Automatic annotation (TrEMBL):
The keyword Ligase applies. This is AMP-binding protein. The lineage of its organism: Bacteria, Pseudomonadati, Bacteroidota, Bacteroidia, Marinilabiliales. Residues 405-481 form the AMP-binding enzyme C-terminal domain. It holds the Pfam family AMP-binding. Keywords: Ligase. It comes from the Bacteria. It comes from Carboxylicivirga linearis. Residues 21-355 form the AMP-dependent synthetase/ligase domain. Belongs to the ATP-dependent AMP-binding enzyme family.
Amino acid sequence: MNCVDYFLSEQIINEELFILGRSEEVSFKELAQLVAKLADWLKNNIGVDNKILLLSPNNSFFITAYLAIMKSGNVVVPLNPGIEKDQFDYIKELCETDHVFMVKQVCKRFQIDINDVWNEDFINNIKTTSNETEWIDNAINENQLAQIIFTSGSTSLPKGVMLSHKNLIANTQSIITYLKLNESDIMEVVLPFFYCYGLSLLHTHLKVGGKIVLNNTFIFLGSVISDLQKYKCTGFAGVPSHFQILLRKSETFKNTEFPNLRYVTQAGGKLHTTFIKEFRESKPETQFYVMYGQTEATARLSYLSPDLLETKLGSLGKGIPDVELKVVDDKGESVQSGAVGEIVAHGDNVMLGYFKDEEETKNALDNGWLHTGDLATIDDDGFIYHAARKKEIIKVGGRRVSPKEIEEVIVGINGVIDCTIEAVSDEYLGESIKAIVVMNKDYKEVTDISIKEYCASKLASYKVPGVIEFKDNVDVNAAGKKVKKN
């Protein structure tokens, strides 16, 4: 089955709004008709199996092009509209394509002739000039490539994660199941759609007939608070920085009631338990889902049910429906409770591989199992606790230190918005510890000395940072995820 038929075919006559927001509103029926028209045009004019790049903020242009490309039997390659020109040129050449959907503002930045790409005017022309198109489900091989999502690699060059129609369908169904989504759900979307977490919100709410509110201005916290109230949002999804900023940058979010907000989800890195506790104290009626995933798994791998936060706080949970997770040693054997190993995953959501990169594919996939590169422990009940990325472990005088343990302590200090622990070269120990701390400016009594003293009261001496650096803001990428040095 074509994944777009799975997402949308049950909604093609639904006249309810799907896209909500200040700038535009689009119904399911309007979206389905335009997707069908554009897919038909693409198939008739460029054929199938082409790689087609897509650069746009979250809007109806992105959603229409994204769905139409896959429905037409072509492969969509969504990219950050803020991408550097050299990275864009590299990916365009790698994909061997001249087909690009790009909003005018990006064309202008790249100084690309507007006639060389398909922009908003082109889609509007398709909408107004094409005849009504009947929605016909496309019978395709479910393992056919649907999209390529580029992520940062171990080198400066991005890696293209190849996802099939089957991958997208499987992960969407799993997420709908454990979040219990239905047509009454309304999601506040601040995550970009070129990021797999953001795309999962689009997929799931299309499938169940829910609604999405598009907000591309998270930096203005008031707009998020306003959306949650105005549109009676039932869900909010964020990465750690979103929750840290909402909770520590302003008291407004914590002091505002959102009676319709049924649940929030958090993924894209570990959110320290201090912030989870703070959120739950502020919003006790809102369910908090801790989640874990990777682009290589089409977004989601595990979740921790909100009713287990008390007893399993700090855990990333267990595998989502129809996904098996294990923690294994270097020989591939499951580790004992409490021992550290690597998280591996098996399920229909696991990627096809990396685009034109056989070596990295072999490193990541072994007999259908995805090797995540994430270190973790597992308890007696089978719940997994993330330790660190393999490359993040710091060795201080031969002793292994997980940055997350130290970060967890420091963010417990009043006024700390974020903490990043990194290794610095040390003549005697090999590596020593540096803490980069982002403070709320109202807490001037917190100093490097007070932070070290607090750490010394909570941690072994070799885990206490030797250097404290203060910064004004959290460094995040375009998806809102915190940027760390390799």
